[in-house]
Amino acid sequence: MAEYKLGEIEMKFAEIIWKNEPLPSNELVKLCAVELEWKKSTTYTILRRVCERGLFQNNNSIVTSLVSKEEYLSHQSEEFVDNTFAGSLPKFFAAFTKRKKLSEQEIMELQKIIEDNRGD
Fold this sequence. Notes:
Elements: H1 8-20, E1 23-24, H2 25-35, H3 40-52, E2 56-59, E3 62-65, H4 69-85, H5 89-99, H6 104-116
Antiparallel strand pairs: 1-3, 2-3
């Protein structure tokens, strides 16, 4: 099972992979040099680290994700609700909407999500 923890810098690195995958590892080195101002050794160190966590892989010098960005963010969201609101979506939603009013469009989208996930 993948370890779903990325620090701020690792998240920027992951974004580069998700945006450009599949990509040769030497191309990843070039992108990281431009976008993160990293040396080759730093890129390979971080790549090894995220591969060991089961989030990405480097097979035959081609880097791809094992966990999509959507899966990663979904897991992070679930963990946040679990840790902060004892797993209660209604408590999270109440806290979220206390300071930010929802637009009609957002309300309609949320109602559709609820209807699509109703367990009838």
